[in-house]
Amino acid sequence: MEIILDGRTVDSRETLHQRLSELLHLPVWYGRNLDALHDCLTELREPVTLRVIHAHALRETLGGYASGFGHVLDDSERENEKLTVFWEE
User: Fold this and answer.
1) How far is it, in rounded angstroms, from Cα 23 to Cα 6?
2) pLDDT given at position 17
3) Which of 2, 6, 7, 59, CA to CA, is 20 to 30 A from 14?
């Protein structure tokens, strides 16, 4: 499955987690924070490619939180071979 997260559609942390929850069909227990996101991403059983497009807009809107989000995606990708992440400016 390929998922596209458009950074231009994210205007807050809450929106980021809402979009991820919808796009990735995350479980009900998803806590809508970076730790919970990491837990969900490392438990994926089916292959998922996540493309973050317009990443610059995400960084502009979320500031340092976008950096933490990036680290979570990187760490999750390393821990779960079913997850592939691409960043596009």
Assistant:
1) 11
2) 97
3) 2
